[in-house]
Amino acid sequence: MRLYFKILLSAILFACAALSVLAANDIQCFFISGTSCPGGSAKLIGAGNDTGGFQNAHAQNYTINTSAYSLCCNSSNASITINNSCGEAAVIKLSSEDNAHVEIGSNSNYTINACLDSNWSRVYCAYPVGSCEASYSCLLSMAGSEGTNSSNAHLGNCSQYNQLVCCGLLNYAPSKPTLSYPADDNNTVFERYINFSWLESSDPEGDSITYTLNITCGDSCSAECDPEPFEGIAAIYYLLSNPLCVDIPYNWTVSACDNQMACNTSDIWNFTIDSIALIDLIVNSTSFGDAVPGVSNDTTDFSPSPLVIRNLGNVLVNVTINATQFFTSAALNTAYYRFSAADNETGSINTGCSQSSFANMQATPSNAVCNLTYNDSNDEARIHLAILVPNDEPPGTKRSDIQFIPTQAEGSE
Predict the structure, then answer these.
(1) What's the rounded Cα separation, in Å, for the pair 164 and 92?
(2) Band of pLDDT at residue 285, cut at 50, 70 and 90
(3) Among 38, 153, 180, 59, which Cα is nearest to 114's?
(4) In Å, what is the CA distance from 122 to each residue of 77, 117, 279?
(5) Average model confidence (pLDDT) across the chain
(6) pTM above 0.70, yes or no
(7) For the chain, which domains are there?
(8) 397: burial class by Cβ within 10 Å (0-12, 13-18, 19+)?
């Protein structure tokens, strides 16, 4: 026997723009006379020309330290360290270790890289003509004799030539998360302990990423239905430990944030958990065997076995019981045929409002089980039966058909 009660409420679609964050700090570079840079700065290159200056100069790899001038770089933020390793950006490239022409870092004619890194985010470089874009600072300028400034060039400070080398410390947000489950505009979600999932984001600087899951149901729903954001998630899924409510529309998003708190948020998806009141009789018959008038028996000792109900739905249910007459000589609603309810798994019913003691079986529905839970670990209830054979009951096989009717015990919030 399988009975069910079902409510459906269409989801409402919400939309808003996704957000990405860009943070920036300036790089400051300057030419000094000497082979080494002051504390707190990193040497990009050595520089010098035939007359001993740094304009219209050739470059020298920073490791050699014989040129008369050095190009030194640091950050406008004192807590950010600049170094000359090559993990992030080749600012320019040199034609040789010493007395070299230079080209922009995105070219591939030369193989000796002059690099900058930082301990904060990532160095990005661009090579405009005329001026640097916002969030980028000018490091040097380049001039060439073959009609192009991007390669085979001499160098100078930023006011010397039009071809600029501009770099900045930029931290871009991770890529926008792509949601996976539950699907958008979904009215057929069954489980209330949803395992939300999304695709992995990537970070341009290779920073570690954590996710925030935000589930909302708007101003019209109660606080218990509207959970706080779930923050600091390292995985690309999150299983709820508390159930969501049924028959109300939910929105959900995921934000991906790097360790600099630059974030990017997914599109907004929505879903509704359709309430389903559904029970199954997993033990649907019992037999008291042979009995003589005046004999009583019940199922509390499991001989014979009681009936067992399981909640297959996703809401708390109340269950009523009624039956056809069992004995020929005794009507229903008498002490000759009775029932009671108990949990078959610990905590599966509310014993305070269930029929925990024996009550007379009736032809009309009577309360049997109250708040039968829907969790897999405790979703079963027992229905015990008790009989007393009337003294004037004629012999023969006796039968009663029992009906169970579930109703939803919790509603929309």
Answers:
(1) 11
(2) very high
(3) 59
(4) 14, 7, 59
(5) 90
(6) yes
(7) 8-20+174-273 (2.60.40.10), 23-172 (no CATH), 277-408 (2.60.120)
(8) exposed
